[in-house]
Predict the 3D structure of the following.
Amino acid sequence: DKTRPWYAAAAAAGDADAQYNLAKDLLRPDEGGGTPPDAPRARELLQLAAAQGHFVAQNDLGALLLEGAAGVARDAAEAERWIGASAAQGFYRALDNMALVCEQRGDEAAALRWRT
């Protein structure tokens, strides 16, 4: 993919947007059946961007940890931490995801609070 060298250089330099974009690119399967998704590397990049306060990366990292993926273990507690950090910044998808996390825990009252 032509975008990877650009993202890779900027991500290595610590740019949170590049780290996020490269991570999302690494999670997307190649249409031609070429390079398989690299979920473990994507997790590393999302974690770097999330640690810098990138609210979309925080949400997406939490979602990845909540679902688990090839090479990424499911971790509900860590997922909730990252989704919660994103929701605290007001990101609408994270607010919905926090409600889902609460529902999975069986806490309908908390889920309702996240949806209002």
Notes: Residues 55 and 98 are 14 Å apart (CA to CA).
